[in-house]
Amino acid sequence: MAGDRKQIPFLRTEFDEGWGAFSPDAHWIAYVSGESGSFELYVRPFAAPESGSPGIAGKWQVSKGGATTATPFWRADGKELYYRSPTGALMAVDVNASTTFQSGAPHRLFDVLAAAPVDAAADGKRFLAAMPQQESGPQAITVVLNWQASLKR
User: Fold this and answer.
1) CA–CA distance, 113 with 95 (Å, rounded to integer)
2) Domain boundaries, the chain
């Protein structure tokens, strides 16, 4: 954070855009835009303000079939990007964001509650999310005691 620390707009278009998330290396921004007529997930490179044109050089549509305005998020190693579909599913997309951006086909992971926050473990193999209740009636609660001891193994 050097320089005059002045706020500058990253992107100015006539479309409804927002819900941005930096990649772990801060070279890319994933965001949701309505420029296609429906909300979709896009990725752009992030250039430092000193380069003169932040957010201008290239844009890739990542979602197919829509995205919600919930903020997308990246796996800790930057190799996967997550977003919510309009049907309520958490979607994952494999990405390669080295010098250029490439993405695979989105695939459904699981359904999530509309406004519930979701987060992924660094390896992308576990998620923390509020889930819809599958059954009615009493639910079992599991209490794990002395769980810190299992971390030392």
Assistant:
1) 25
2) 17-130
Q: How far apart are CA 81 and CA 90, in angstroms?
A: 10
Instruction: Quote the CATH superfamily of domain 17-130.
Output: TolB, C-terminal domain (2.120.10.30)
CA distance to 79, 80, 85, per residue, from 97 (Å): 7, 10, 22
| Amino acid letter for position 54 | P
Q: Which DSSP string do the residues of 87-113 spell out, in sequence order?
A: TSEEEEEEEEESSSEEE---EEEEE--
**Model confidence, pTM:** 0.75
Give the helix/strand (H/E) hosting 147.
helix 147-151
- Look at the block and give the residue holding tokens 């549509």: 61
Per-residue model confidence as pLDDT tens for the chain (153 residues): 567 777 777 777 888 888 889 999 989 999 999 989 999 999 999 875 554 544 446 889 999 999 998 889 999 999 999 999 999 899 999 999 887 889 999 999 998 887 788 889 999 999 988 766 666 677 788 888 887 887 776
Kindly report the backbone phi and psi dihedral angles of residue 60, in degrees, each rounded to the nearest multiple of 5, phi listed first: -130, 130
